[in-house]
Structure formats: C-alpha cells, structure tokens
Amino acid sequence: MKRQAFSLISLLSLLLVAGSAIAQSRNVRANVPFSFSVGDTTLPMGTYSIGAISSDAKTLLVQARGGSGVMVGSNAAESLTPASKTKLVFNRYRDQYFLAEIWVEGATLGRRLLKSSREKELSKELAADLTHQPVEVVASLY
Known about the structure:
By secondary structure, the protein is an alpha+beta fold. It is built from 2 helices and 10 strands.
C-alpha cells in the first residue's frame, strides 16, 4: 500500500514538473504601446515576441518583429492564483517602463526579469514617491 501511494505521488510530482516546464517554455507575443527597457537596452514601441532560449527558461529573448533581439536573465515567479490572462507586466517609474514579469493564462508559474542597474537606481530614488506603478499589456501565445 505504501509503495503504491509513493508511486502515485511520484507520478503526480513528475507530471506537475513537466507541466511547469511546458508552461515556462511557451513563447508570447504582445503589442507594446510605449518604449520600454529590457536589461540595459531601451526598445521602441511595437510588436514583440518573448521566449526562452535556455532549457531552464532562465534566459529569455525579447525580439521585435523583423528586428534584433535582447537577451535577459529571469527567475521563476509564483502566484497562488492562476493568471487570468497572458500578459506582460511592466514597472513604471514616471515616464520610464521596464519589462518586469511574463505570465501565461492559467499558469501559477511565470517569469520575473532581473532588474537592470538603471531600474534599481530609479526604484531607490523614487522609493518615497508614489509614481511607481505596474502596467499590464495583454499578450498571446504563439
């Protein structure tokens, strides 16, 4: 009986890990209506695709339609409730936007991008200021 229970738990754990890996390896596309920064690079508004370029999804490629791409590091992000939509989340400091998170509809695991030195500087500078706002842009899977 214990062996069957252990086997069942092991199988369910394996399926959960495989499902998480699939959710993290999906590519998303979004039309971003403002210029924004990824790492130390500022990108103009436009349509972008974002996908993992490493098997563990730690390195992402943000690529403009028909343009060059920017690689950025990321960490896993987790939410207790599944994402209600596929979206990109940007941190906004006054008039500057920084790509911060990527979520896929229905998933509780997303990706959180590493902050650039400029974003860290702005977040410290504006810590007492209430102008920091997260901004969401709806995305789609492809």
